[in-house]
Amino acid sequence: MIRPYRHNWRGYLFIAPATVYLALFAFFPMILAGWMSLHRWHLLKDEHPFVGLANFTAMTQDPFFRNAVKNTLAYAVFTVPLGVITSLAVAVLVSRPLRGVGFFRTLYYIPAVSSQVAISMVWIWILLPGEQGLINYCLGRLNAWLGADLPTSTNFLGRPGWAMAALVAMSLWIGLGPRMIIFLAGIQSIPETLYEAAALDGCGTWRRFWYVTLPLLGPTTLFVTVTTTIASFQLFTPVYMITHGGPRRTTDVVLYHIYKEAWQKFEIGMASAQSYVLFAMVLAAAALQLWVMRRGLTEQAE
Amino acid sequence: MKNRRAAGRGSRMRRRTSTFLGRVALGVLAALAGVGPVGCAGDETPDQVTLRVANWGSPAVESSFMALERQFLREFEQLHPGVRVQVEQIPGFGQYAPKLLMMHVSGSVPDVISLDASSGAAFMDNGVLRDLKPYIERDASFRLDDYFGNLVKIFRRGDKLYSIPLDFTPMMMYYNRKLFDAAGLPYPRPGWTWEDFRRTAGALTIRDPNPVRPPRQYGFNFINVMPFWVLWLWTNGADVLSPDGRKAGGHFDGPGSVEAVQFLTDLMLKDHVAPTLEESKAAGVDLFRSGQAAMDLKGHWMMIDYRADGIDFGVVDLPTNTGSPTTVVYLTGLSITSRARHPDLAWEYVKFMTGREVQIRRVASGLAISGNRHAAAHYAGNPVEDAFIAAVEYARPPWGATVERYPFIEGLGEEMLEDLLYSKGSLGVAAQLRRTAALIDAALSEP
Amino acid sequence: MIRRLTTIIHYLALAAIAVTTVTPFVWMVFTSLHPPSAQIPTMANLFRPAGWHFSNYSYVLTFGELPVWRFAVNSVVTTCGVVVFQLTLCSLAAYGFARLHFRGRDVLFFIFLLTMMVPAQVLVVPLFAFVQRLGWLDTYAGLIIPYPYLSTAFGTFLLRQFFLTVPQSLDDAARLDGCGELRILWHVILPSARPALVTVAAFAFIWTWGDFYWPLLATSSTSMRTLEVGLSVFSDAYSGTRWPLQMAAAVIVLTPVLIVFLAMQRFFVRGATMSGIKG
Fold first, then answer.
1. How far is A108 from chain B (nearest CA, A)?
2. Mean pLDDT for each consecutive 10-residue tract of chain A (302 residues)?
3. Touching check for A125 and chain C: CB below 8 Å?
4. Which residue of chain A is at minimal alpha-carbon distance from C274?
5. Which residues of C touch B59 (CB under 8 A)?
6. What is the ipTM of this complex?
7. Considering Cα of B278, then B279, then B282, then B285, what sign does the dihedral take?
8. What is the pTM of this model?
């Protein structure tokens, strides 16, 4: 039965609740943030003088904010490639039809759905200096086993570079599951026939991976890279729970900096301006990656 | 025909369903909107009122002090039947002020809060607290005169008063009498200068025969806490900020400050009469408490530990180059918040806790000196206590009582000193002070 | 023979990764059973506490100053509220976009999708100011309704995809019976779309339950905290002491999500592959 295309005004009714909701709680806040960022807006004070772009210019000169941006970029630069590579490797590992592989897949996913606060609490233990901390303990065992002389009392959270490294390690541990699943889906969508053809041409396992799997995973890799980047700009809970931005502000990332600006200094005008900068960073990173990798993919296709 | 009628029925059904759903949803939302923290409208009846009080200290830690506070609460509840006092313990001393201010912003701040003057500016200058003047004027049983005038002054803004002094401590120089006796030195006397101090500290430092090892005994114990070491600027006639509290440049990096910070770093790095940061950390204990340091710049509360450790201590004014005695007073008061739900009851509570009887018992441990003159006088008569009480006459208020960003400034100062003490002069004292003063000024003048 | 070897190596690799994944959780559970005032257990005595203190759990749940049971209630109310609320919004909107034709439909849908682009954290500052003005701070309304994470557009998108796959003939049959649009949605579409609904609900549940940033700001008094935030308050309060109690609280917070996840993992994995992930 052919149904005529009929304008049904009831459609508006159905989308009305969600539209009103988004208008109020998504669009309006965006506009409000823009408005607030042009004022000196302190949560406790009644007067909000208009300051134009002063918040933005002050931000560019503020060494603490610049430091936060630097830290966020550094974190992303390490987390994204390492995260993508490790999860791809694990995805390959779980893509073979071994018995019980589903169990492992589920297991690896658990940190991703677990309470970030609880995980942060446990990682404090992992990073403890001295014999109680897991990493130092393992180093100590390695020393005993191999007769090596590795340092076993590193205070990871007290040394500037190490604290950031610890955060990167945490993000790899947590994010492995979801990224692995996406790569897995990509791997499983590659038709067997391609592998068979490659095998007939005399390709070994490694060459099959390099020339068949990897190229066909291009779009998937792009997707994982972009989403991981966006997520890495939103790091907050471990910084709040474990490092508090330290030591000496070396793990002060933009989102944590905004949190302090808005809810410890109560300067929500400046914090709104900084939020826009964060938004711009996310957009820029995503756009850049899309552009670069699209170029790579189209070149590859040719 | 049938379709249209059926459609009509259908749409009526739909309208009823959607109206019904809509009403349910609205009802749920309305109910939820009102549901707030326990202790809100629903929980109270006319005969059962909850007074909410905030204090710092972890709710998880049991201490005799907190047990005592709870005892006072119970007594207050007995005096006011139908009243329940609920304490909101806020852990993490540095988080107390931001958390309370957040609660104020959220509309869920308690009725009474303990106010630390060192972070009090944000509370007093932003309408977070109630003016207590009307309560004082209306209440004949309350005499503001019962409290040390210099403390009350700190909580004033114009003719408004925002807090009643609860307890306080000036910072003084403790000295270990046994170590002085062993070295054959006379006890320090008020009016002593920095030079006197340096010589004394040198005489009290006992080196280890092995030059690689740290001294067996230090003349002076030092920790990098700016609320303590800012006194070295003050006793040299210098300061962190200009008198109006708006500018650090020219003051924090002025000649007097440079001299003071240089003096401090020399104590540790050049003369080595005070422990370096590494040595303090390696020792793992407070060196004055363990009897390994002869002098320390601390407040009244340390007495509790010193007595427990069996230290025979004396107390003297700080060494000063200005010719007149100088120190800071750190104090706490009780305030009623501007959004308090039970202000009159809160006033009764403030009166009760700052009253002479409760105060005498409250500071019996030696935690601090009571802000109530009469309660403080109860403990007068011994030289140590008298020295502390006498200091309140000339002690200056902390900057945090007037400058909102001061806690942040203290953080910057401590980082700067840590750099100076670790890097052993890669950037000289003057340069570090200048750099930090610029950072402070940037923080003070944000758009 | 070589196949055997590679298989063994394969399993070893999988096991090694499994060990790194699981060790922290194992430590958490065992530490939570140590005596409350014990020092951090070393690896040597981790599995041999001085007595198995299951009482830590009841202590943590009922500790007056930091009532974890209360945090749990708040989390349940918030999460269920968000799930129900968002499912309602999204189902209605998805039906409108999938089944009904009206002017500007596709443009509006595109605008919907645009909101997915905005990272939630950017919204939080102005949202806070807005919610404060509404008087919803420190209330359930403030926790449930202005939820900046639950991309309503995302849920709408997912559901719409699914609704499009439901055969139109079912609709038509219902319409012939005199059903209006809402009834069609309720009686025809939604039952067929159960897997999609469960997926959206599962995502919403896990996102909301584990969310930290917004509830941290939207609540300020202890009795309104959700589990995630309450756990951080708990950790603050003990701050480096009483690890067994802290770990007991952590286990309590972790367990519900794990249960939901393990029960729903089928849907979860499928949903994850269908769309974007919070990583």
1. 35
2. 64 86 89 93 91 92 94 96 94 85 90 93 90 86 83 84 94 94 89 82 78 84 90 93 89 95 93 93 87 73 60
3. yes
4. A182
5. 65-66, 237
6. 0.86
7. negative
8. 0.88
